[in-house]
Each structure stands twice: as C-alpha cells, then as structure tokens.
Write a structure and sequence with these properties.
Largest sheet: 5 strands, antiparallel
Order of helices and strands: EHEEEEH
Distance between the termini: 29 Å
Strand order of the largest sheet: 1-5-4-3-2
Oligomer: single chain
Number of strands: 5
Shape: globular
Length: 66
C-alpha cells in the first residue's frame, strides 16, 4: 500500500505521534501487534508499506493452524 506524503501525514496525525518514530526516508509506526515500516518509493514518489500484506499472511497462518 502506498500513500502520498499528504495522506500519510494525515494518517499519522490521526493515530498520534506517541507511537511513531522517524528517520530520513523511513517512518515506523509502533502498532499494538508489530511495528509497521513506511519507506519512500522513489519510482512512484509515495510512502509505501507492506503492512497489509504482512497482516494478511499472519491471519492466514493462524487460520491454517486451527
């Protein structure tokens, strides 16, 4: 999933700065279950994360164990 800088800034404002850490070209959201990393994708000039894909894979793994 990728967002524009403006959309990511809006999202980060909504979740609160207390769970966010930043470095140049990297933003980490310290979520309840795991850290979610956002990085700049220069090809599309957007901030991107694999968070949704990783979350889906984790849910599928849990379902397969049952």
């Amino acid at each position: 999933m990728c967002l524009t800088t403006a959309a990511l800034a809006t999202f980060l404002t909504l979740i609160g700065a207390d769970i966010v850490s930043t470095e140049p070209d990297r933003i980490t959201v310290h979520a309840e279950n795991a850290d979610v990393l956002w990085v700049v994708n220069p090809t599309v000039n957007r901030w991107c994360t694999l968070g949704p894909q990783l979350d889906k894979a984790a849910r599928l793994d849990k379902a397969a164990v049952k």
